[in-house]
Amino acid sequence: MSLPPLFRRPSEKLIGARRSALDVARGRLVLMGVGFAALYMLVAARALDLTVIQGELPRLAHQQVRDNDLSAPEQEIALRADIVDRNGVLLARSLETASLIADPALIMEPEIVAKDIVRVLPGATYGDVLKKLQRQDKEGRKLRSVLIRRNLTPNDQYNILLLGHPGLGFRQEERRIYPQGALTSHIVGFVNVDGKGLSGIERSMDSILAPGRQPLQTTIDIRLQHIVRRELQKAIDDFDAIGGIGAIMDVNTGEILAAVSAPDFDPHEIKESDKEAQFNRLTLGVYEMGSTFKTFSIAAYLEMKNASMAQSFDARAPISVGRFKISDFHPENRFLTIPEIFMVSSNIGAARMGEAVGTAALKDFYRDIGLLDKVQIELDEVSKPLVPNPWRDLDTMVASYGHSVAVTPIQTLAAMSTIANGGIVVHPTLLMNDSLPDKNGRKKDGKAEIRVISAQTAHRMRQLLRLVVTEGTAKSADVAGFQVGGKTGTADKKEGRGYDENKRLSSFIGVFPMDAPRYAVMVMVDEPKGNKASYGFATGGWVAAPAVGRIITAMVPVLKFLA
Predict the structure, then answer these.
(1) Integer distance in angstroms from the first to the last C-alpha of the chain?
(2) Could you give the number of structural domains in the chain?
(3) Range of 163's domain?
(4) CA–CA separation, 493 vs 400, rounded Å?
(5) For site-directed labelling of 199, which of 7, 49, 176, 505 has its Cα 20 to 30 A away?
(6) Same domain for 144 and 193?
(7) Are residues 212 and 323 in the same domain?
(8) What angle do CA 155, 78, 194 make, to 5 degrees?
(9) CATH of the domain at 355
């Protein structure tokens, strides 16, 4: 029985072409619906990939790695303390970085994972990574914790995350950085991959720099460090030398404001630097310092003999002692007064004064002034002086003008500061007084004052030091308005049992201002060679004195201590 027309479906009302068109339209609508559904599914899948697969899964993988003891708990790690200069400028700091680690037991296809890691990590090699991903213990089981790469950059870490491999994770570690690079390399030093100090203050103050401590403040002024390094390097380059040192010391406190040893090295690239560059010539190098020692032998003579400055000594001919002969570089061939001996740097005159002081007395004086014992300073890289044994009378005469006894440059600088400040022994230091606690946790106290020469003798020595710059061998160190004084030194280097006249150490220690000394500046150049500008000479007056003059000229506006 058929329904009345009113109750029939619309399609049943249509026949022929109209009904066929309606069926085609319905099919198209179904097809469009399926297409939109597929598109929505694609968008949802992409969202899932971005938010879960590439976001949550790496986090879960990292969590899984941590659960297998591959990383530390999620917390801030305590970082090694900073090292700063006297003004708070950063010299060393530890940064928190990520290291890539793997759990080989969770990596099913190490070949694929190794290829992917090499693809995104610069410098990684396939063989090395693959070997690490397959490491086993003694029982043949895969290890659960393998270090792949330390100190990833943020970009490296991001690229590893994008790989999405289970079994890869990160461990938070620290990396030591040195913002000043090679500029302070010998003083600050460096650490190993585990953050343990291996050189410089990093080594000697390793326990003081423990995580969580306050910054360790040094006496270095990084501005002066720049100046000294620049002028020292200029002297080395101008005279084709193999190296040298430069330093600035406060003559009253012993604080070292600048300390440079050349050549130097990049503390971030220790493996790329050679041992010579890592050698600290300022504290490890032991040298016969030449005529700078005349400052000390003459001071000893004036102090012990209460002599008049007008006293003269016979310098008409070399002194012969057995098979040895003591002569002057520029002989005057006449009697010389004490100021003349110092001004023209007469070896003969200094030797006669040393002989008059006597062996025992001169040795005692050198020891009192800090020249015969290992210098006490906040570094482990410090050498002991080389002292004649037995010490004969000939050694006394030779030591009076800077041979026979070999010391570190920092000792010579400290001894000169002792003479300049009025006769109070100077103890060199690299740390500010309030930066280093003693063993009981208290701040370190200054050492008791020890006077080695009278104020009168010290005053006479300041007059002699000024004379060397105004009338003697160091005229090129004079800086108008600052009353620079000092002493040059030129010493042939010892080779075997003799000396090589073609290899020398040329030095100058300048002190200023001489009416109230505040700073001592030292430059020593190792094996300089004469040039056209120096008329072939490579002595302390030609090589080191001009460098000290340039340093003083540049440092005074920085310090403004005379303002």
Answers:
(1) 123
(2) 2
(3) 83-217
(4) 17
(5) 505
(6) yes
(7) no
(8) 70
(9) 3.40.710.10
Provide the pLDDT for residue 29: 72
Instruction: State pLDDT tens for residues 363-397.
Output: 999 999 999 999 999 999 999 999 999 999 999 99
Residue with tokens 């620290």, as numbered in its chain? 174
Same domain? For 257 and 302 the reply is: yes
187 with 262, same domain: the answer is no
- To 10 degrees, the CA torsion angle through 159, 163, 168, 169? 40
User: Among positive and negative, which fits the CA dihedral 33, 38, 41, 42?
Assistant: negative
Closest of 431, 358, 350, 370 to residue 396, by C-alpha: 358
CA atoms of 371 and 384, how far apart (whole Å): 10
Which residues does 318 contact at the CB level (< 8 Å), separation at least 6?
325, 326, 327, 328, 331, 348
Cβ–Cβ under 8 Å, residues 440 and 396: no
Both 431 and 509 in one domain: the answer is yes
- Residue 256 pLDDT > 80, yes or no? yes
pTM of the model: 0.81
Do 389 and 476 belong to one domain? yes
Rg (CA), the chain: 37
Per annotation, catalytic residue among 71, 185, 199, 291: 291
Q: Is 383 a catalytic residue?
A: no
d(CA 430, CA 85): 10
Helices (H), ranges, 218-293: 222-238, 275-278
pLDDT, mean over the chain:
87
Residues β-bridged to residue 451: 424
Q: Which 3 state secondary structure label does DSSP give 71?
A: coil
Q: In this structure, is residue 482 part of a structural domain? A: yes
Does one domain contain both 387 and 528? yes
Give percent of the chain above pLDDT 70: 84
- CATH code of the domain covering residue 89: 3.90.1310.10
Together in a domain, 429 and 453 = yes
The answer to whether 345 touches 329, Cβ cutoff 8 Å, is: yes
